Amino acid sequence: MIIGIVCYPTYGGSGVVATELGKFLAKLGNKVHFITYSQPVRLDILEENIYYHEVNVEDYPLFQYQPYELALSSKMVDTVLNEGIEILHVHYAIPHAYAAYMAREILKEKGLYIPVITTLHGTDITLVGKNPSYKPAVTFSINHSDAVTSVSDSLKYETIKFFSVRKDIEVIPNFIDLDLYKGEKNCMKANLAPQGQKIITHISNFRKVKRIGDVVDIYYRIQKEVPARLVLLGEGPERQKAEEQARDLGILDQLIFLGKTNEIERVLCMSDVFLLPSEKESFGLAALEAMAAKVPVLSTNTGGLPEVNIDGVTGYTANVGDVQRLAEKGIAMLKDEKLHEKLKQSAYEQALMFDIKNIVPMYIDLYKRVLAEIRV
Ligand code: GMT
Fold first, then answer.
1. 319 with 290, same domain?
2. One domain for residues 43 and 82
3. How do residues 102-136 score in pLDDT, each as one tens digit?
4. Beta-sheet strand order (sheet of 297-300)
5. Measured between alpha carbons, how far is 226 from 338 in angstroms, rounded to an integer?
6. How far is it, in rounded angstroms, from Cα 94 to Cα 132?
7. Residues 186 and 320 occupy one common structural domain
8. Distance from the CA of 153 to the center of ligand 1, in angstroms?
9. What is the pTM of this model?
10. Centre of ligand 1 from the C-alpha of residue 13, in Å
11. Is 337 in the same domain as 365?
């Protein structure tokens, strides 16, 4: 198949999922064309069957806002015509599903019908999509996609609840390449925890929805009982506040900010606990990555998180804001080696269910079904 993938290229779950999906499809012999405004962070454009098409938006003084959707639709049209793309798979509804709808309509006039698959990822529905400025356009583009998928049951029901959706939504969960977590890793835990402290980790884009304040608060409570350090990966608007909070609590020197890095597996392999106390989380890919590295997760029970992190089995969950419960559970597992070991093992077993080899065939099957439908 020749597949066009549209996604956000930056750090963020949907871009990572789209990139890993495309890479895996390319390995299976499909030709995969990425269409986005800059090279996706995890994409190696020199890999066989991978192609990258950059969307350029001309700056024009008349426009207060540059019309990215227009440029994206035009790029999709050009790429379909020049590269023979058979199917467009867009990740994150805003504005990708809308732009893909336009591209499909333009191509129709040229006698081509290129089906559009939209994958809903989370905030495109739960936060941004619900905004009245976007809702009619999001509803329209969901209903006019040839197929719609969501990354969790929770997101599917949230979409049905808040949007007038006529389209069936198929749940295809996020996935992980477990091969990346196998074998010896050069962990170097002693560099970050020279006195044998436990390592507590958080990875995100440091937006408000991630409740970074709770990350620091949970860590603060844990380290009073168990010597530990807090390792934070990622960058975003809430980072500064987290630093200030840690300074006020007198623990700033115990925090390690690693910024944006692709060394996720190496950091996770030295971690003892992973924190994800988000306000909203349609799936929680970061939690799954931790579990693949045998790291138990302390998370909230919001959105799709309980579909990934099973309370009392792969870690623990709590209501949003219940930092006390998560800290207590963290202390208990770090003080009890046997319990910690059991949670680590179960976390890994749960991650196996989301292995890329089990999930990507679900997308391939969907592509085939959609293509077969339009060919009748
Ligand atoms: O919030 C993020 O981390 C970014 C966002 C995105 O779409 O880029 O992530 C969402 O999609 C991820 C991949 O499907 C999910 O794992 C995240 O749970 C989801 N984030 C939220 O729902 C807040």
1. yes
2. yes
3. 999 999 999 999 999 999 999 888 878 788 889 99
4. 255-259, 228-233, 198-203, 273-276, 297-300, 315-318
5. 16
6. 13
7. yes
8. 14
9. 0.93
10. 5
11. no
Q: 204-253, pLDDT tens digit by residue?
A: 999 999 999 999 999 999 999 999 999 999 999 999 999 999 999 999 99
Closest Cα to residue 144, out of 112, 108, 83, 102?
Answer: 102
Same structural domain, 230 and 365: no
Ligand 1 centroid from CA 288, angstroms: 12
Residues having CB within 6 Å of any atom of ligand 1: 12-15, 17, 92, 121-123, 126, 151, 174, 205, 209, 280-285
Cα–Cα dist 139/47, whole Å: 36
Structural domain including 273 reads 179-352
